[in-house]
Structure prediction request, 145 residues.
Amino acid sequence: MGADTRSAIDVIRSTEQARLRALVAADIESARAMHGIDFQLITPVGAALTRDEYLGAIAAGQIDYLLWEPGEIEVRLLGDAAILRYRATLEVVFGGYRVPRTSYWHTDSYEFRDGRWQAIWSQATEIQAGAETSRGRPLLAGPDI
Prediction:
């Protein structure tokens, strides 16, 4: 991996960390700049939200992130596109209901547009208790799987 690639990966990781901080702080102006106009979030319950729906819900207090702690952010860089994957612990109030501290897998795609990296797609999946072994491998349902 060349120095330019490592540098781009570091910028993408930093951008994702800044995006998460902006979402927790409900800093909509900063967050808007880090989300492409065609951004779409798929929530852990399967709802699809556009950028304006998502950021509007945060601005209105319908989504209130209390905590968003990402683990190591893995990045695959493919030219002007990147795929990120990481585990995170979140605490959020959603529609007035406080969701307890929970772990999620996050997969995000970024594109380099107008001189900056922007989130385009994001999907979160809840990690349910017992879903993984101590080595981080999936816990399978039966001996034949």
Summary: The helical segments are 3-25, 28-34, 51-59.
